[in-house]
Amino acid sequence: MAHLQSIYRGLRLIGLVLFYYIFSIGITFYNKWLMTDFRYPLFMTLVHITIIFSLSAATRRILHSWTGKPRIILNWADYLQRVAPTALATALDIGLSNWSLLFITISLYTMTKTSAVLFILFFSLAFKLEEPNPLLIIVVLLISGGLFMFTFESTQFNLEGFVMVLLASFLGGIRWTLTQVLMQKAELGLQNPVDALYHIQPLMFIGLFPLFQYNEGLRLSTSDKLFRVTELSPFLHSVLALFSGGLLAFGLSFSEFLLVSYTSSLTLSIAGIFKEVSTLLLAAFLMGDKVSPLNWLGFAVCLCGISLHVGLKACKSKSKCNLVLLNIKRAVSSMKSICDLNSEKKYHVLNLKRSILASPSQ
């Protein structure tokens, strides 16, 4: 029976990881393909935000009907003070990431996005979510050195796109740090990612809309892709393509939630390493991205830094688990001692009572 349960857990883990890979890798290539013809990445992101909000609202409604429990709705003060910074950082991270795909290859995009670990690490230390460790300096040197080697003398390097995705990685560090703080605050009640998505999306839309209006508003309103269509077929093609991307975006968020809820964030980090390798290989073989031996070496060095960071997190989690188990054992031992002491006292009291009752007859 135990053997069958182990097999089941292993198959479930493989299924969840594959489910995550399909959406994570799929949306990267899909967005790159879509923007070869539909060159409005910020509008595409706004459509994705709208679809994610609609689907998360529908999911909340289904959960409410299924469980009978009302879903959390934040008051305006908490919503604007605590959710708004996370929403703005998330909107700019995703918007700039999609925008950068207009200028750079998927391989350069994938490699540069791995630098988000550096910024997450920096902000985790700033917010005291991570404890300082000398080995973290090695992590920073490996990742930054690998990124430099990957971009050095790259034949398909584009400075504008590189700066965009690097800025997106910086904002991603703020985004995931604030998201962790937001979801760990039990008083807010946003531990369920569906509730978090529902609350974040409207502010994301509001935060990204001015940038869209400034950069793409006029061009899109005069484009024959949507608002000046002369035939129905191209219009339906654009709508269907945008809607499909929105489904992929929601699927990515949902698959991350499933993987973390059934395993751990550590498993998601490890799966992310192999996802980057898979994305880079697919970009080289399917999209024709040119990657030199020095670039591959830089990618390997960067992965070593990420792997070291994941390993440090694993050791830290194991130490915490061992400490919890030790405290539990101490508590059980204390309880046992108290119980033994109480039993001994009861025994002495019982003997005393017997002696008192026996004394008059003597």
UniProtKB/TrEMBL annotation:
Chief place of localization: membrane
GO cellular component: membrane
Sugar phosphate transporter domain ranges (all copies): 12-308
Keyword terms: Membrane, Transmembrane, Transmembrane helix
Membrane topology of the entry: Multi-pass membrane protein
Residue stretches in coiled coil: none
Key word Membrane present: yes
InterPro entries listed in its UniProt record: Sugar_P_trans_dom, TPT_transporter
Segments passing through the bilayer: 12-30, 42-63, 101-127, 133-152, 159-176, 235-254, 266-287, 294-312
Places the protein is found: Membrane
Protein name: Sugar phosphate transporter domain-containing protein
